Amino acid sequence: MSSGSRASASSYAPRKILITGAAGFIASHVTNRLIKNYPDYKIVALDKLDYCSSLGNLLPCRSSPNFKFLKGDITCADLVNYLLVAEDIDTIMHFAAQSHVDNSFGNSFEFTNNNIYGTHVLLEACKVTQKIKRFIHVSTDEVYGETDLETDIGNPEASQLLPTNPYSATKAGAEMLVMAYHRSYGLPTITTRGNNVYGPNQFPEKLIPKFILLAMKGEKLPIHGNGSNVRSYLYCEDVAEAFDVILHKGVIGHVYNIGTQKERSVLDVADDVCKLFRLNSEETIHYVQDRPFNDQRYFLDDQKLKKLGWQEKTTWDEGLKKTMEWYTKNPHWWGDVLSALNPHPSISMLTDSTDNYETFMKCGNRTETLTGADSGLKFLVYGRSGWIGGLLGKLCKDKGIVFEYGNGRLEDRNSLVNDVKRVRPTHVFNAAGVTGRPNVDWCESHKAETIRANAVGTLTLADVCKEHNLLMMNFATGCIFEYDKEHRQGSGIGFKEEDTPNFIGSFYSKTKAMVEELLKEYDQNVCTLRVRMPISTDLSNPRNFITKISRYNKVVNIPNSMTVLDELLPISIEMAKRNCRGIWNFTNPGVISHNEILELYRNYMDPEFKWENLTWKSNPR
């Protein structure tokens, strides 16, 4: 395998190209262009069909004899190695990645797995098979970090990488692997770093399609912060041409920025969308809380790619109009996207691409458009007056999911049956129960009430759901374990879903552990979510664990698993959509001690805050 550090004057001509993430937005435009313009090239499209991919994006390729689609994940080493050999691949264009910054703040491990580990699997397969003559790695302008607002000089390809969010950090990490495999093993790599891309077929978690779909519905356009953040936007067809040029003329070992000098603020974009739809921007634009960190500007030096012969052709006005016309004609292309249209989507797994795959395979040469179906969800929620139940209702409203709160008491079977007949739900959420007034000590002196609510009520609801063939999402507790010899404090060994509860230090925990065991008899229609020390960004709620312990004079300093409701409650809705069952430890990764929480509270909320520690003989986890 030759690194070919000096390119010859002649263009590179691939034979068989593997395109990863081919059913995604940018990759599908590149795939369609190559199939159309190069009938001698064989294209193998690989995609796991995640929420932001659709085989509908590849419809122009469907009848081509030199096109093959395979559903699969780049993190599967056996699959990747097999494909490179069986398909005799000589060129890889690696687009597959998790790319939405908002999601990376709440689901960063998935970004590490896809963007870094997936890239590593591909690189190792190339090293082993020794058949690859070009490996084009697709990265992002965000790896450079924030550009100074005052400069008129864009980041050249030799600039230092200074990523500022989990997404860009994983892309920078993947780039380091690509560079290492080029230098250590002579892998013939080329890396691209691109500005924002827009156009038809883009999943509407991204800014421009989100604004267009919201404008079509006559709804507010949410602006993060003050809308002054500046971005450069390239139309998808121009970007597809850029990859065409880099594939054929790019120099091995080099990096190419794919950018434009024309910048627009987020507020400018919103104004332009309003003008296209003849909306009053002052009435339509709505300012919302900013991201945890939102770079002010990304600005690229685009001269290197221009020297290869590429030029941006589509003006902003022309591209935005084309994009608007496409979404107007294809409003249901992505199916139910209400969650993606939220100002701060926390998780996006919205379409069932498997169904689309079957439809695509059956279409043959017909020109049918693939669209998703309406979700048809309707939730019956118990726990209206509780913290989690109240947040669930708000989430359903924000996501456009039809729901109603139950009127019946859980221990009254007839009232539950009447609720089911009245609401006719697809799923039931149980967030009702007794945790104590104001704390679990109340349960010690009110055992009958605790049993009635936490045991009898939950079991009755599970039985009614089984009778009506309904899935019950049951919010339980993780306060049923304590550190023991097999799970020592500080060992990093946590309790698994199948472990037997071992904490009997409170009557509350006893009832919860007992119910969890009995619910196993309803394992076909119950999904149990073990919540532990729930916290959220709402510090005004007295049930928030941060708020609760900040009001104590003395606290026990124990490392605990935590449930960040802002991140995990939306996942419970997604789990209901997927009909998940069984027991799940519904907590964020790792542990944090009570002292660490209070230190953060002091540092960010109250510099004068003080507390004392007390000892505790039994350490619940």
UniProtKB/TrEMBL annotation:
Pfam families: GDP_Man_Dehyd (PF16363), RmlD_sub_bind (PF04321). It comes from the Eukaryota. GO terms for molecular function: dTDP-glucose 4,6-dehydratase activity. Residues 18-323 form the NAD(P)-binding domain. The keyword Ribonucleoprotein does not apply. Its cofactor is NAD(+). GO terms for biological process: nucleotide-sugar metabolic process. Keywords: Lyase, NAD. Residues 378-549 form the RmlD-like substrate binding domain. InterPro entries: dTDP_Gluc_deHydtase, NAD(P)-bd_dom, NAD(P)-bd_dom_sf, RmlD-like-bd. The keyword NAD applies. PANTHER family: DTDP-D-GLUCOSE 4,6-DEHYDRATASE-RELATED (PTHR43000). This is Uncharacterized protein. It comes from Acer negundo.
